[in-house]
Amino acid sequence: MPAYRVMSQNLRYDTSGVNALEIRGPRLSWLLDKYRPDTIGFQEATPQWMGWLRGNLAGYIGVGVGRDNGRDKGEFSPVFYRADRFSLKDGGTFWLSETPDRVSGPAWSAACTRICTWALLEDKQAGLFLHMNTHTDHVSVEASCRGASLILSRLAALREKYGPIPAVVTGDFNGEEHSSVYAVMTDPASPVADSKYLAARQVNACGSFHNFLKVDVSKHTPIDYCFVTPDTLDVRSYEVVTENPGGGYVSDHYAIFALLEAKQAGLAPGGQI
Fold it and tell me: Quick check: 146 and 200 in contact, CB under 8 A?
């Protein structure tokens, strides 16, 4: 059965000084060279980061738009995928708001405008694979929970349209495992489950937000996740990636990496096995 190497990485917006993008970017390249993800969900990808990603991630294509104008302004929550393995069948960005299909400002008392980007990919050998990626609000619990519910609703609609395709939802949800947003994502009625608890093997099952080592991650659970559809995907391994290439860090968040295996080949474009 086809395997998928999936990663989620909050980049931290471009800063100056010792944690400038120009310093952290090569560390990200090193990390991706080591883990070789098939698809990646990034958060806090500013226009400056997007320029760097598109110029330096050879072999990957990115999907997504800026949250402020639906084009090039504001942070992106892009999905990048391997061009040698996948082609883009469908995709887009929606806003976590009452008007998801048009550019919206902060909703439900959120501190920031929030979006979700999705890419329906056609594996050139194994059918369809869906990757959704988001960054929910860090202030408003209502916004994060309603945003999560909207994402699950859109996921269900896409699977109704295309069939029971293997799917992942990655992102920075700004909530640990005791949070309300995590409860929404892992509700028994949810189509997804936390890859951490489905994994045959866990590596570094600690927190993911380290704030450049100002937080003791051993005392926390992640706020970054890779949720998967358990009816179509098994999880071989799950890892909080605590690498520090060159003695430094890619971001103030560790990446999440999951090695997944489809329970059967994904649906073909026509919806047939």
Answer: no
* Interatomic CA distance for residues 110 and 143, integer angstroms: 6
φ, ψ dihedrals at 94, nearest 5°: -125, 155
Question: How far, in Å, CA of 75 to CA of 197, rounded?
Answer: 30
Under 8 Å CB-to-CB from 239, ≥6 apart: which residues? 202, 203, 204, 256, 257, 258
Q: In order of start, what are the domains of the chain with their CATH numbers?
A: 3-262 (3.60.10.10)
What radius of gyration do the chain's Cα atoms show?
17
112-130 confidence digits (pLDDT tens): 999 999 999 999 888 999 9
Three-class DSSP category at 273: coil
Query: 210, 220, 127: which is closest to 166 by C-alpha?
Result: 127
HEC string of 63-98 equals ECCCCCCCCCCCCECCEEEECCCEEEEEEEEEECCC
Contact criterion met (CB below 8 Å) for 194 and 157:
no
3-state secondary structure 132-158: EEEECCCCCHHHHHHHHHHHHHHHHHH
What's the residue count for the chain?
273
DSSP string, 176-245: -TTSHHHHHHT-TT-S-EEHHHHEEEEE--S-SB-TTTTS-GGG---SEEEEE-TTTEEEEEEEEE---G
Amino acid at 122: E
| Tokens describing residue 242 | 């605590």
CB neighbours (10 Å) of residue 254? 26
**pLDDT for 217-236, tens place per residue?**
999 999 999 999 999 999 99
Residue located via tokens 């349209």:
161
